[in-house]
Structures are given as C-alpha cells and as structure tokens.
Design a protein that fits this description.
The chain has 250 residues and is of the alpha/beta class. It contains eight helices and eight strands.
Length: 250
C-alpha cells in the first residue's frame, strides 16, 4: 500500500471525471459536490429523497441520482442508470448516520442495544459495501478509478484509546465501531483491487446534522480532504487513512 502523505498532497489528477457522492444533498456531501463541480467534474448527487436531491443538484449544476444505500434494488437501479450514461470514475461513500437519543445524546456502552448498532452498521458499513460492490464493474473500466470512504477520527483505535486525545472522550459505541469497520473494509478492498485508489478519510469534527451542528469546523474545512482524495492521481496513495494533515494511525 502507498500511504505517503507527501504523495497524497501532490497527486491530484486534473482530468475531468464522473463522480458519484452518496448522501450529497446536504452537509459534507453537498460541499464536496460543489467543489468537484467547480473543478470541472461531472458529479452525481446521490440522495434517497428525490425532492431534496433534485433541489441540491439544481443548485450545484450537478446531476441527481436517486439511491438508498440500504436497499439492494435502489443501488442496482442507480448503477444501471450511471452505466447507461457513460460510467463512473470516482465513488465517494459519504452517507452515514449516528444513533441519537433525547437531547441529541448518543447511547454509551451501558445503553446501546443490538438493534441500534445494527441500524448504524446497515448504513455506515453494509451500505458502503453494497454501493462499492454494485459500482465496482464500472470503476474497473475507468482509466483512473477512485473510491473515497468517509470515515472518522473516532475510527482510530490508537486515538480513541489515548486519554490525551479528544476522541477518547466520545461516549458513543455504534458510530465509532462502524467507522472502524469501514476502515478495515477500505484496507481490504485496496489490497484486492490494486488498480484502484481506495482510501478512508477523516473530515474532522464538522458542523453537520449528524452531530446536531455541534462541530468545531465548517463544511468547507471538512470537505477539504474528501475533495483532495477524490481527485487523487493513479500513482497516488491507496489503502490509507488520512485527514487534512496527512496519514492517521489506525
């Protein structure tokens, strides 16, 4: 695996690509779509809500694709539509959820139920696998295929186990566990498909609906690493885990 941080920052591709971003009608997905459209790429705004997705695509000058990543039929339909329109170069698995209780709280280890963690994994892990599997045939036909899995700093066992880090204080179980699993999925896919550039990224604690807009940075700041890795060149890193500053510990 090539995971050198300097390579990451110097390997952006300039050729226009066709990009699918899941969960792109708001938040980090929307900002990522905006930046990639601005850079000259053809972008599909993936959304499970047709009205919101169409509105977002119109605002961005992008294309809309209806896709519910928890539904096999919806994902298959989206893949067929994009294939018929010419194919895909870049997949950004951005859609994600966190289970929340009263007052926007997250259930800790004492409160978490199996059903709650299953719900989170269905989107954050199984959904990403479902979409990646469906679009792999299209990506493998691209001359420069890329997959970006939007992970989290909470996925890092190294950081969460260190009392000196902010991640250590997070009480939730479901979301960090799902993103740790997504990191392993990223690594194994990168090993299996060396012709693809497949990486996990940590946007940082960004103000989005996912955290009740309690984040400490803007979506513009959070999208930076997603946009960068979506445009990585064929000789760029793969099988890595990055934030805007460089590689992160697993």
């Amino acid at each position: 695996m090539t995971t050198d941080g300097d390579t990451m920052t110097n390997a952006s591709a300039t050729t226009a690509k066709t990009v699918l971003i899941t969960g792109a009608n708001k938040g980090l997905g929307f900002e990522t779509a905006r930046r990639l459209v601005e850079a000259g790429h053809t972008v599909y705004v993936g959304s499970r809500d047709a009205e919101r997705g169409l509105r977002a695509a119109d605002l961005l000058g992008a294309r809309h694709i209806l896709i519910d990543i928890t539904d096999d039929g919806s994902v298959a339909d989206a893949a067929r539509t994009i294939e018929a329109a010419g194919g895909l170069d870049v997949l950004v698995n951005n859609a994600g959820i966190e289970v929340r209780g009263p007052g926007n709280s997250v259930p800790g280890a004492a409160e978490l139920t199996a059903d709650q963690i299953r719900e989170v994994f269905e989107t954050n892990v199984f959904g990403a696998v479902r979409v990646t599997h469906a679009f792999l045939p299209l990506l493998r036909r691209s001359p420069a295929p890329v997959v970006v899995n939007v992970s989290s700093g909470l996925a890092s066992l190294t950081l969460v186990s260190d009392p000196a880090t902010p991640a250590h204080a997070y009480p939730g179980v479901a979301y960090p566990a799902s993103k740790t699993a997504l990191n392993m999925v990223t690594l194994q896919y990168a090993k299996a498909f060396p012709a693809l550039r497949i990486n996990a990224v940590e946007p940082g604690f960004t103000k989005t609906d996912l955290n009740g807009n309690t984040g400490v940075q803007t979506v513009e700041e959070g999208a930076e690493i997603i946009v960068r890795m979506a445009q990585v060149a064929p000789d760029g890193p793969t099988g890595g885990y990055f934030d805007a500053e460089g590689p992160l510990p697993w």
